[in-house]
């Protein structure tokens, strides 16, 4: 497993280097050993097209009162939404329901076009954890989930590690869970994916060329709860680590209210 | 065959000098396209007209330049041709006001937002807009200073040389400055990103074997030939 971090004026590749719990160490590619809280964690790979799945666990689909589907519910995200491990995700002051989504992310390593399910996993370079935040207050019934819900600045956390596919023995059966301020709120296993990774690669590559760096966020199981400024959200996936992010209030961004320059959203 | 890095083949001579490859489109941002929905906007599954900008992405596999061939998938008879003005970001745009929004624009280009025809906008399949080659753009980026008013441009679409649609950027629900303000309220646009302003009602269609040219005043012409999947 490896991370991309910023330290002392440059971006580095880093690998785990032991250390006590809470004081874990990283070894940079140039040999320096640093504490993990001394660095800025970046998304662990250069992301290309960011492909996300909605309602891809039966229990979560039920939680949101959604009926069965004949095609994966895919939406796309832009790079501006990405954050690394230990990042800060803003919560607008005027919303009532903002939730995390712990997801297994599969990173494409080889171009894929019209790839059959049986060969699909050869195109996966590795995996990481994704936390795909959503603000449900902004959900509109047009091109759901509309980007104002899902593609907000700082709303998609990736990391901490990029883990080579060869190092993930059984990606079809990984436990995942989320803790908010240390309390378990979400639990699932990737065996319960409605559309699994080989299917998703076969489906997507039937109409779009997947390229190295493209990433598929495979969806989240049930157990999404509201999070508030100050909350620490930890998403864990078996063998991939613990992805931490913190919710912050938008007053940190100089926003006294969602009204800007005397005009309001949708004033047209 | 899809050419790699199509967005690097669009020429322009103003900063940031190349596109990022990130292209967002705006749904129902032409007044006639919204009006064409009629009473349906207030009924299920929509229940209300859009409030904030409704955006979608044209991922990097969709990007091609003028002169490239576009493949229509075997299962489709024809595609919709979505002529729209593309706004190229020049300076990082985060929560910009409408008054200052155009300061963040590097220039403009023509975008052909190609789609498989679909009538339901509730949760359309990504297949409809994300097929390889479904976002021709170009032919060049025209600098902002060369465009007197991005809200007064005519768009003309020709199929096999026949004029099939005209539209104008003067009828946008959110004109470019307001669109940039409302989009960057929740997502920062970076230099080289493209925001397509919206497609007019009655998008013409093209079949395999047809050529499509879109002209926008002062921005040149974007031409592509549509072919059947082999």
Explain what the structure shows.
Chain A is mainly beta and about 270 residues long. Chain A has helices at about 60-65, 115-120, 145-150, 195-205; strands at about 5, 10-15, 25-30, 35, 40, 50-55, 75, 80-85, 85-90, 100, 100-110, 125-130, 135, 155-165, 175-180, 185-190, 215, 230-235, 240-250. Helix content of chain A is about 10%, strand content about 35%. In chain A, β2 (about 10-15) and β3 (about 25-30) form a beta hairpin. The longest helix of chain A has 9 residues, at about 195-205. Chain B has about 230 residues and is mostly beta strands. A 7-stranded mixed beta sheet of chain B has the order 2-1-11-6-7-8-3, with no helix packed on it. The model of chain B has no long low-confidence stretch (mean pLDDT about 95). The interface between A and B is large, with 40 and 49 residues.
Please describe the topology of this protein.
The complex is a heterodimer of chains A (268) and B (230).
Chain A: E1 3-7, E2 10-16, E3 25-28, E4 33-35, E5 40-42, E6 50-54, H1 58-63, E7 73-77, E8 82-83, E9 87-91, E10 98-99, E11 102-108, H2 117-120, E12 124-132, E13 134-135, H3 147-150, E14 156-164, E15 175-180, E16 183-189, H4 197-205, E17 215-217, E18 232-237, E19 241-249
Parallel strand pairs in A: 6-17, 8-14, 9-19
Antiparallel strand pairs in A: 1-2, 1-5, 2-3, 3-4, 6-7, 10-13, 11-12, 11-17, 12-14, 15-16, 15-18, 18-19
Chain B: E1 23-26, H1 31-35, E2 55-58, E3 63-65, E4 69-72, E5 79-80, E6 83-89, E7 105-112, E8 135-143, E9 154-159, E10 162-168, H2 176-184, E11 194-196, E12 205-206, E13 211-216, E14 220-228
Parallel strand pairs in B: 1-11, 3-8, 4-14
Antiparallel strand pairs in B: 1-2, 5-12, 6-7, 6-11, 7-8, 9-10, 9-13, 13-14
> Would you tell me the structural class of the helices and strands of chain B?
mainly beta
CATH fold description of the largest domain in chain A: Fumarylacetoacetate hydrolase, domain 2
Number of helices of chain B: 2
Weakly predicted, low-confidence segments of chain A: 261-268
Radius of gyration of chain B: 16 Å
Shape estimate of chain A: globular
Tally the structural domains of chain B.
1
Strand content of chain A: 35-45%
Number of strands of chain A: 19
Number of domains of chain A: 2
Outline of chain B = globular
């Amino acid at each position: 497993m490896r991370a991309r971090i910023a330290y002392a004026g440059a971006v580095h590749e880093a690998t785990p280097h032991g250390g006590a719990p809470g004081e874990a160490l990283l070894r940079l590619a140039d040999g320096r050993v640093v504490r993990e809280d001394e660095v800025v964690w970046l998304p662990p790979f250069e992301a290309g097209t960011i492909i996300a799945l909605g309602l891809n666990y039966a229990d979560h689909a039920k939680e949101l009162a959604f009926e069965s589907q004949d095609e994966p519910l895919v939406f796309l995200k832009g790079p501006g939404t990405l954050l690394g491990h230990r990042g800060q995700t803003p919560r607008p002051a005027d919303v009532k329901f903002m939730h995390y989504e712990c997801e297994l992310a599969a990173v494409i390593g080889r171009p894929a076009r019209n790839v059959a399910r049986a060969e699909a996993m050869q195109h996966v370079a590795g995996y990481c954890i994704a936390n795909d935040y959503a603000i449900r207050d902004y959900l509109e019934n047009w091109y759901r989930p509309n980007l104002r819900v899902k593609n907000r600045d700082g709303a998609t956390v990736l990391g901490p590690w990029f883990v080579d596919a060869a190092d993930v023995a059984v990606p079809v059966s990984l436990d995942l869970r989320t803790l908010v301020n240390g309390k378990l709120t979400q639990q699932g296993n990737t065996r319960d994916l409605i559309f699994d990774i080989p299917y998703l690669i076969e489906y997507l590559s039937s109409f779009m060329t997947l390229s190295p760096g493209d990433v598929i966020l495979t969806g989240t199981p049930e157990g999404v709860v509201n999070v508030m400024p100050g909350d620490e959200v930890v998403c864990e996936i078996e063998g991939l680590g613990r992805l931490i992010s913190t919710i912050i209030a938008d007053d940190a961004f100089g926003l006294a209210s969602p009204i800007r320059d005397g005009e309001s959203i949708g004033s047209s | 065959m899809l050419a790699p890095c199509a967005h690097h083949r669009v020429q322009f001579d103003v900063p940031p000098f190349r596109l990022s490859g990130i292209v967002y489109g705006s749904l129902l941002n032409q007044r006639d396209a919204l009006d064409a929905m009629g009473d349906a906007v207030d009924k299920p599954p929509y229940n209300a007209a859009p409030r904030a900008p409704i955006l979608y992405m044209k991922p990097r596999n969709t990007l091609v330049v003028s002169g490239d061939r576009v493949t229509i998938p075997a299962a489709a008879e024809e595609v919709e041709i979505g002529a729209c003005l593309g706004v190229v970001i020049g300076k990082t745009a985060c929560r910009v006001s409408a008054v200052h929004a155009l300061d963040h624009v590097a220039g403009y280009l023509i975008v052909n937002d190609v789609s498989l025809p679909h009538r339901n906008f509730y949760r359309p399949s990504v297949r409809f807009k994300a097929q390889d080659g479904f976002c021709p753009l170009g032919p060049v980026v025209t600098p902002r200073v060369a465009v007197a008013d991005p809200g007064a441009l005519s768009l003309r679409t020709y199929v096999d040389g026949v004029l099939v649609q005209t539209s104008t950027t003067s009828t946008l629900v959110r004109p470019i400055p307001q669109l940039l303000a409302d989009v960057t309220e929740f997502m920062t646009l970076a230099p080289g990103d493209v925001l397509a302003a919206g497609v007019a009602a009655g998008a013409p269609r093209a079949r395999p074997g047809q050529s499509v040219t879109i002209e926008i005043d002062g921005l040149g012409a974007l031409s592509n030939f549509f072919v059947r999947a082999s």
